[in-house]
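Record minuted for everyone:
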Amino acid sequence: MMASTYSGGKVPPHNEDAEKAVLGAILLSSDAFNEIIMTLRKEDFYLPSHKALYDAIISFHQEHSGQIIDLITMSEFLKKTDLLELCGGMGYLASLTSNVPTTTNAIYYADIVRSLSLRRALITFSGTLYESIFDESKEVSLLLDEGERVLSDLQNSTSSFADNYEDASVLVKSTVDVVMERLKHGNTRGVKTGFAQLDDMTGGFQPSEFIVIGARPSVGKTAFAISLAIDIAIHRKIPTGFFSAEMTSMAIMERILAAEARVDSKRIRSAILRTQDTTSIVDAAGKIYEGKLYIQDTPHIKLFDLRSQARRMKREKDIKILFIDYISLINPESQANVPRHEQVAEISRSLKSLARELDIPIVALSQVSRDAEGKEPNLANLRESGSVEQDADVVILLHRDRLVDPENKENQKQNEPVIMLNGFAVQETKVILAKQRNGETGTIRMGFQRQLVKFVELEKN
């Protein structure tokens, strides 16, 4: 069969002998088929007859899973489905089995076919991108984002057949292995938050999860996220990304210094520091320097820029979790005349998809509506779009009945007694686990130290 050519007369990368060896090995060995099916899709074959035969083999396997795939069974199947001539005819099928050097090298042949398929995909992608560059109606930023997405898909692509379904007899074994490993060493897959009660309920934030933290303004969404990031990135040195569309990276670092050094944030901002404060800040700075926290502070960041930077953090720093502060300050890709709830829905879906693509938990902050003012918020109060609630795997809502200013004596008289911890006032806060797709819900009592801009566990203390 004549090979097609690209512009310039070049023949697309392919290896006809490797494709023949793969198909011949499948017809000779069921073990070879079980390995190859996890690696190759029909699109990976270059010659149309090979694509047709491989697709027919997969169809036969799905329809007759108990039967052996060999030259006889496949030739009969191809005759019944009128595909024999399309696959080259009976003589061609016989030649495939007679020319296989050895079935033990089947996966090696499959890797050759897969590699050349990826090369063809890259050539096609680059050609499409080349043409798009000359279309001035398309924004350059969108072209870059689409390019990154396609390259990421190519890098992470696996067999389409393997993605369709998994045999429970195989899946249960690997699942039991994970459970036994978890029993032996603890849950090592999830990213622990550092708060024992929250970790007990969630098992830590899991890869591919989209987690939403919601609250009314001034309740402490950012402080809660920073408290989590401090434990993850600085105390346990797990690579952590933190996107802030509201605060500068310097302001975030001042909060981290206040929390880690246990120095009143007001004294840090006003530069009224005591000698022990300076020493504590220097010591805290050393710990932060040794940590693995990466901060991006672009105001009103565009959605495609966020995805691009997140992919870069994953690629260069191998981040294991990403925080985003907050959803409403992300600029979507849709037009400005699109209703706001649709824009937020677009952002929510994109963040959920990004969590799966990068295989990390993404924690996004969100405001809740004014309807929740003065009372406990619920899922319906998540602001501007019901899709945030639907897309989220975990929803955490923060609530305080009343705010207490520890420096206002009159205010203290009118409210409940102030709890003190290490010389700083603690305001009791409810951390409401309102949704957990794979676990329990409930409420945890925690404390907010406003002067240190950090959260602490009340039960532990």
